[in-house]
Write a structure and sequence with these properties.
Elements lengths: L5 E5 L5 H10 L5 E5 L11 H17 L4 E4 L2 H14 L4 E3 L1 H11 L4 E6 L1 H6 L1 H6 L6 E6 L1 H8 L6 H16 L4 E4 L8 H8 L4 E4 H15 L12 E5 L5 H11 L6 E3 L10
Helix pairs in contact: 1-10, 2-3, 4-10, 8-9
Length: 272
């Protein structure tokens, strides 16, 4: 048993979907969430910068005594997972593998679509994992403006729907029957995405599947919080002000996020 918090990190508010799924499954677990709002969004940034920012935040979480790290960001998972597992003594859970496994078991036709940021799609993290199965045909599409919409609190506007129609048209024409939402921001746009893709396409998001992975790792390593544990949820942001993070979290998730404190991450030299 271990009552230390689970550390969760994303470039902004998208990872809150993962945090909520973990809390739903593991209500006694304490959570420490950092949104790297100082550097959001990660998607269009060079992979070296994403790697540096990610390790800075993960270092901050480990310094605060977390028992597990959850990289609740697809772009960061693709950029830094191997480094993180070598760098830290605590288990590291990411969001790509769980979604891939679910997509493989969900598809009926073997035609799977993947949407994500430019960084995630360009890394081919999803495509390479899915294409290990030679019966699958994978179609990938970058949707860079989706994160911008979510971070602006726009999830149900006519512009969101119009952009979704444009981004998703190639996937509709490819007749995919399963669509992986390869960004933790995208579940906030599930209404528009589902409407455009139609009722016959199954949407796979990484939040619930990642929470399942967290549960399995905690059980297998005997890291579950004790039966008498009282869960605390702490939220931190790296930007100049926590006000925007709180406002956006309230808009997207209700009043689950009450207070956000600012945290300063250290500068890491990755040249060596």
């Amino acid at each position: 048993m271990n009552n230390a918090p689970i550390g969760i990190f994303d470039s902004g508010v998208g990872g809150l979907t993962v945090a909520r799924a973990i809390s739903d499954q593991l209500p006694r677990e304490s959570l420490l969430y950092i949104g790297d709002t100082a550097h959001s969004p990660y998607g269009p940034k060079p992979i070296a910068d994403v790697r540096r920012y990610s390790l800075e935040v993960l270092d901050a979480l480990v310094a605060q005594g977390v028992k597990m790290l959850v990289i609740a960001c697809n772009t960061a998972s693709a950029a830094v997972l191997r480094d993180a597992r070598e760098r830290y003594d605590v288990p590291v859970v990411e969001v790509i593998g769980p979604a891939v496994r679910t997509a493989m078991s969900t598809t009926r036709s073997g035609r799977i679509g993947v949407i994500g940021t430019s960084g995630t799609i360009g890394s081919r993290a999803y495509q390479d994992m899915l294409e290990v199965n030679d019966r699958l045909t994978v179609f990938a599409q970058a949707c860079p403006r989706f994160v911008e919409f979510v971070e602006a609190g726009e999830t149900d506007t006519a512009e969101v729907l119009a952009v979704a129609e444009e981004y998703l048209a190639p996937l509709r024409h490819s007749a995919v029957d399963t669509l992986v939402l390869g960004c933790t921001h995208y579940p906030f746009l599930k209404g528009a995405i589902s409407y455009v893709m139609g009722p016959d396409v199954s949407l796979v998001s990484s939040d619930t599947e990642t929470a399942n992975d967290v549960y399995r790792q905690l059980v297998s390593r005997d890291l579950l919080a004790g039966t008498d544990a009282t869960a605390t949820h702490t939220y931190e942001a790296t930007g100049d002000s926590a006000d925007e993070f709180v406002r956006l979290a309230h808009r997207l998730m209700g009043r689950e996020v009450r207070d956000v404190r600012l945290v300063q991450t250290g500068a890491i030299d990755l040249r060596h």
